[in-house]
Amino acid sequence: MTNNPTAEELCQRGLDLLAAGSAAEAAKAYRAAIAADAACIEAHHGLVRALRDAGRLEQSIGAALALTALTPADPLAHTALSISLQHAGHVPQAEAAATKARVLEWKIQLQSPPDEPAPTGDSKP
Q1: What digits encode the pLDDT tens for the residues 82-115?
Q2: What residues contact 115, with CB distance under 8 A and at least 6 apart?
Q3: How far is CA 2 from CA 15, 30, 51, 107, in A?
Q4: Distances from the Cα of 1 to the Cα of 6, 9, 18, 34, 47, angstroms
Q5: What's the predicted TM-score (pTM) here?
Q6: In angstroms, how far is CA 18 from the centroid of its own chain?
Q7: Is the dihedral of CA 38, 43, 45, 50 positive or negative?
Q8: What SS3 class is residue 115?
Q9: How far apart are CA 12 and CA 3, in angstroms?
Q10: Domains and CATH numbers, the chain
Q11: Tens digit of each residue's pLDDT (9 = 90 or more) over 64-87
Q12: C-alpha to C-alpha distance for 84 and 94, rounded to whole angstroms
């Protein structure tokens, strides 16, 4: 890494630390990545996971809420919030966040072009 690592480099460091089981250190790397580029969505997702893995559940919820504010139409952000809420024992709120994630996913599916129908096999050249 350079003297002034990029958000991407810091995010990769966070991922490596998380994979090595150093969740608290990973959270520091993800926070640094966010400081370098507040729009680095991967760093926000990583921070939520690192804080949750470090047992800092309320901080993880706060990070997930920030992520959902940054990307309100992202089903994965709401899923991350739901998981953190579930781990913290906030079951009704976790269920609400999971429902929001499902609705957003359905909206995305409805906006996608439908799959082409399968050929029937009776077309003639």
Answers
A1: 999 999 999 999 999 999 999 999 999 998 877 6
A2: none
A3: 18, 16, 26, 42
A4: 9, 7, 18, 17, 20
A5: 0.84
A6: 15
A7: negative
A8: coil
A9: 15
A10: 7-111 (1.25.40.10)
A11: 999 999 999 999 999 999 999 999
A12: 8
Which of 25, 23, 27 is closest to 44 using CA atoms? 27
H runs (alpha helix) in 1-125: 7-19, 23-36, 41-53, 57-70, 75-87, 91-111
Contact between 25 and 18 (Cβ < 8 Å): no
Look up residue 69 and give its two tokens.
Answer: 């504010």
CA distance 83 to 59: 13
The sign one gets for the Cα dihedral 26, 27, 28, 31 is positive
